[in-house]
């Protein structure tokens, strides 16, 4: 059996130019409108319009693995757990499955490892000799309510420990009260504190109440220099959904038309089934194009998703489903 896979990412992530941002354009923010019924119809029709099966499905799932930010953000995290997660990131699919798929000679890793600051140095050491970046959640994750100077110091500490990506959380109050200048200034400070590290802006869309708030907050963060916009911390009541994804992808498209910069997208929280990530991939390709299927522009915040993808690949190879405990993540 041999799978013709979508071309795997070139060596090294984050190869695209940084988003330098632009001046806050309140006229652009004020003009943002969303047709909610049309957006709902677009998402409802998505599963029926595209059906990815058999070898094609295996290929898309292998591509998804290269875009996963393999994550552990629990209160009981330990050095040993993070080390095991890093080992899985380096070899996310069992060797026998890759051989059966005709992919034994292809270098497949996850897109990144995502941890709290406490474990950045541990992950950097465990990933030495690879090009897998370490991402740190920061700025008082997940609520983002610590003092601003503490947020900046946390970013700087993670960068000093070797984090190449920083996932910040915005102050939701600014979006809820339409204080776009405050959100822009906050994001600019975060961008500056990151230095050369790429910055992903977590909007916590479940806390923002409306799609219009989501769209406007996404645009402000991109104007302030976010390299990625991300749906959720994974700790809100509602996390990533295809509906908020559509709103954010449309804003990425608008921002590209304004500046020429390509901003990445990261759904996170609640994405645990292989069949669900296929819908996200199709939506990315249809809305933004083929480039947004690569880890430079697409990341998936997940942990258990990898186990289900590996199960689906084993089913593709053997015709049988195996238990989750045969596919440990970390």
UniProtKB/TrEMBL annotation:
<protein>
    <submittedName>
        <fullName>Deoxyribose-phosphate aldolase</fullName>
        <ecNumber>4.1.2.4</ecNumber>
    </submittedName>
</protein>
<keyword id="KW-0456">Lyase</keyword>
């Amino acid at each position: 059996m041999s799978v013709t896979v979508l071309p795997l990412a070139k060596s090294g992530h984050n190869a695209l130019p940084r988003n330098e941002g632009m001046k806050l354009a309140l006229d652009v923010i004020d003009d943002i409108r969303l047709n909610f019924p049309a957006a709902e119809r677009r998402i409802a029709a998505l599963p029926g319009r595209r059906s990815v099966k058999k070898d094609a499905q295996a290929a898309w799932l292998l591509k998804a693995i290269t875009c996963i930010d393999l994550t552990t953000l629990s209160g009981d995290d330990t050095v040993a757990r993070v080390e095991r997660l890093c080992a899985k990131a380096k070899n996310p699919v069992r060797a026998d499955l890759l051989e059966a798929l005709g992919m034994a000679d292809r270098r497949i890793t996850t897109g990144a490892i995502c941890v709290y600051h406490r474990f950045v140095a541990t992950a950097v050491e465990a990933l030495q000799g690879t090009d897998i970046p370490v991402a740190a959640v920061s700025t008082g994750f997940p609520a983002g309510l610590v003092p601003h100077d503490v947020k900046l110091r946390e970013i700087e500490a993670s960068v000093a420990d070797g984090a190449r990506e920083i996932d910040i959380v915005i102050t939701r109050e600014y979006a809820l009260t339409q204080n776009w200048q405050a959100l822009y200034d906050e994001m600019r400070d975060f961008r500056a504190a990151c230095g050369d590290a790429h910055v992903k802006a977590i909007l916590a869309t479940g806390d923002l109440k409306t799609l219009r708030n989501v769209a406007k907050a996404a645009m402000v963060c991109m104007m302030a220099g976010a390299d990625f916009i991300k749906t959720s911390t994974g700790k809100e009541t509602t996390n990533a959904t295809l509906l908020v994804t559509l709103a954010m992808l449309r804003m990425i498209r608008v921002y590209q038309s304004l500046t020429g910069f390509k901003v990445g997208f990261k759904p996170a929280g609640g994405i645990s089934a292989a069949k669900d990530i296929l819908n996200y991939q199709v939506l990315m390709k249809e809305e933004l194009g083929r480039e947004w299927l690569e880890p430079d522009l697409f990341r998936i915040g997940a942990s258990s998703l990898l186990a289900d993808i590996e199960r689906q690949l084993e089913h593709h190879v053997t015709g049988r489903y195996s238990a989750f405990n045969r596919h440990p993540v970390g």
